[in-house]
């Protein structure tokens, strides 16, 4: 056990984690690196150049004539995938903190670092991309020293591209990161930190052995679900699964036991033996808190069960996705899904399409609200359609976040204007170093779920970094904005919004829908309403046949007679007419600005 090191790489998005991981794999002769980002094995990850899923891999390193086993878990950097990072951190004793030499400390660098410090991980600071012309290693070193209070010679200068400093990193991993501690003779305790679905072998769970030993053929049980299985195969994780006869304390590996139902494997559960179980489950594993909710509906109603199966399989691979069934008048049966953010929602939609061939419609994303009635009872509402009658509501509370933006001083003005426009309250402003400043705001989560991040990136020319944490609920003056088509409410387009924004939003939604809804044989009235009060209206004009074309002169009453006849027909048509709302209308409402 003293020759095992479990560590992860944490950094802000695009600071070169995956490239550095490639170099570590190459220098330890684990694999031959044939192309960039070997651990990003999803097509989506390669196309977008981001890590979505954390990946575990074992390396062997010879140091001073001793063989060391290094278990690396590469983690995503984007704030929407911070749950993946928290799971990786729970399975490690140390972390490489990677900072880009050209950009310095960013928002997610700080938030992931705090997460690692909370779990008592040993931090090894690394400055990456030191080979670039615009690198500023001295300034970045000052920032890191200010952030974690280390000594200057603790910081390793490296480059994932050229391989500079990689030997120093491997040496630091062995010398500085502590080996796992545990008792091999104690009852088995193994923490599940990930799982994947294999259509031939069932569910494969990845775990770290905290105490005890697990052998092939053992009868094991999952502590929280109480289900019992035989360990058909256990082994370690390289680029492929490598079977082993046994895994001892401190090892990271996988178990295949023919599990078919996705509900039976929970990330964060503890694996133990049936005949000699442990007393309690491993603690310190946090439950996922979805931030953004959206309805996901199949385009064809008969695909509902297929969509459920697809979501269950996807949930195995992405434990931060939550979903429950719901129905909508406009869209039929579907699911209310909880996501960690908008990028997460986009990725899930894309994966449903690519991996499971599911065409889905996604409704406007929103957050969960707490609604208190006159008797003081609280109900949590994820969907504006579930709102009780306004006369019964005492108050509505919405979730707030503690938002942190790190930017260059020249962008402070536009960023403050943006945050104030999103109902933000300035908490404090601190200078990180030189011309870099951290601005903290208390903001409603609902204001950032649609387009805040995109706007922040465009006004700061891509330099500002953003991170947030939940900060409880606060009472707000919110109203439900309904969209009516010919007097019928379309529940998929309903939103809860602040009373100050309601008129403006209602007007813009009506204008947008007028451009997108195709013309029919009758007039379509598009209205925005708060309760019974109409606050905006647009009309999609009907398509009309020129019924008077055959009249060549003669009395005007002939024309009038034909027009009256047409009018009666249009009226009859309107009584039975249905308005088709195209999918792009739902998406356009998201990009209303």
Q: How would the blueprint of this fold be written?
A:
Layout (H helix, E strand, L loop, with lengths): L3 E8 L5 H11 L15 H6 L6 E9 L2 E9 L7 H9 L3 E7 L6 H12 L3 E7 L8 H12 L7 E2 L8 H11 L12 E10 L3 E10 L2 E2 L3 E4 L5 E3 L2 E5 L3 E4 L1 E2 L4 E8 L10 E4 L18 E7 L5 H14 L4 E7 L3 E8 L2 H15 L3 E3 L6 E5 L4 E4 L11 E16 L3 H10 L3 E9 L2 E9 H4 L3 H8 L5 E12 L1 E8 L2 E2 L5 E4 H18 L7 E7 L2 E8 L15 H21 L6 H8 L3
Parallel strand pairs: 1-3, 1-4, 4-5, 5-6
Antiparallel strand pairs: 2-3, 7-8, 7-16, 8-15, 9-14, 10-11, 10-16, 12-13, 12-15, 17-19, 17-20, 18-19, 21-22, 21-23, 23-25, 23-26, 24-25, 27-28, 27-29, 27-30, 30-31
Oligomer: single chain
Distance between the termini: 57 Å
Strand order of the largest sheet: 11-10-16-7-8-15-12-13
Largest sheet: 8 strands, antiparallel
Q: How many DSSP-defined strands? A: 31
Q: Give the % helix.
A: 25-40%
Strand share of the residues?
Answer: 25-35%
The number of helical segments is 14
Averaged pLDDT: 80
**What class, by secondary structure content?**
alpha+beta
Globally, the shape reads globular
Poorly predicted regions are none
Radius of gyration: 29 Å
């Amino acid at each position: 056990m003293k020759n095992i090191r479990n560590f992860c790489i944490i950094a802000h998005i695009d600071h070169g984690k995956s490239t550095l991981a490639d170099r570590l794999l190459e220098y330890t002769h684990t694999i031959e690196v044939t192309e960039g980002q070997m651990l990003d094995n999803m097509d989506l990850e390669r196309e977008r150049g981001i890590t979505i899923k954390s990946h575990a891999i074992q390396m062997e390193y010879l140091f001073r004539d001793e063989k060391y086993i290094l278990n690396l878990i590469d983690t995503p950097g984007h704030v929407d995938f911070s749950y993946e990072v928290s799971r990786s951190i729970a399975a490690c004793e140390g972390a490489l903190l990677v900072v880009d030499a050209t950009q310095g400390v960013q928002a997610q660098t700080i938030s992931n670092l705090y997460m690692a410090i909370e779990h008592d991980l040993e931090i090894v600071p690394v400055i990456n991309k030191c080979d670039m012309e615009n690198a500023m290693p001295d300034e970045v070193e000052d920032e890191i020293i200010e952030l974690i209070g280390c000594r200057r010679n603790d910081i390793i200068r490296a480059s994932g591209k050229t391989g500079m400093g990689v030997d120093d990193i491997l040496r630091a991993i062995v010398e500085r990161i502590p080996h796992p501690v545990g008792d091999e003779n104690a009852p088995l305790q193994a923490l599940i930190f990930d799982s994947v679905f294999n259509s031939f072998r069932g569910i494969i769970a990845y775990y770290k052995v905290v105490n005890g030993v697990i052998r092939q053929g053992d009868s094991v049980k999952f502590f929280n679900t109480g289900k019992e299985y035989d360990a058909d195969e256990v082994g370690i994780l390289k680029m492929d699964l490598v079977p082993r006869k046994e895994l001892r304390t401190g090892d990271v590996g996988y178990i295949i036991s023919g599990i078919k139902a996705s509900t039976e494997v929970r990330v964060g559960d503890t694996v133990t033996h049936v005949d000699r179980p442990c007393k309690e489950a491993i603690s310190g594993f946090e439950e996922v808190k979805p931030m953004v909710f959206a309805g996901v509906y199949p385009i064809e109603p008969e695909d509902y069960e297929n969509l459920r199966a697809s979501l269950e399989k996807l949930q195995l691979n992405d434990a931060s996705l939550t979903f429950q069934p719901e129905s909508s008048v406009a869209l039929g049966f579907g699911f209310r899904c909880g996501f960690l953010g908008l990028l997460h929602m986009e990725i899930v939609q894309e994966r449903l399409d690519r991996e499971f061939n599911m065409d889905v419609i996604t409704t406007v994303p929103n957050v969960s609200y707490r609604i208190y009635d006159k008797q003081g009872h609280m109900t949590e509402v994820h969907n504006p359609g579930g709102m009780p009658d306004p006369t019964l509501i005492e108050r509505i509370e919405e979730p707030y976040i503690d938002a942190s933006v790190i930017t260059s001083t020249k962008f402070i003005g536009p960023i403050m204007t943006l945050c104030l426009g999103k109902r933000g309250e300035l908490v404090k402003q601190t200078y990180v170093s030189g011309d870099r400043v951290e601005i903290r705001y208390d903001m409603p989560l609902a204001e950032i779920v649609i387009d805040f991040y995109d706007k922040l990136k465009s006004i700061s020319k891509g330099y500002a970094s953003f991170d947030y944490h939940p900060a409880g609920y606060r009472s707000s003056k919110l109203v439900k904005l309904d969209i009516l088509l010919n007097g019928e409410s379309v529940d998929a387009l309903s939103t809860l919004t602040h009373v100050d924004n309601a008129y403006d939003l209602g007007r813009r939604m009506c204008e947008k829908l007028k451009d997108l809804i195709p013309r029919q044989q009758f007039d379509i009235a598009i209205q925005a309403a708060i309760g019974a009060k109409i606050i905006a209206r647009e009309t999609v004009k009907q398509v009309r046949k020129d019924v008077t074309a055959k009249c060549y002169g003669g009395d005007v009453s002939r024309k009038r007679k034909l027009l009256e006849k047409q009018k009666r027909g249009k009226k009859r048509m309107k009584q039975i007419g249905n308005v088709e709302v195209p999918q792009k209308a739902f998406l356009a409402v998201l990009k209303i600005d």
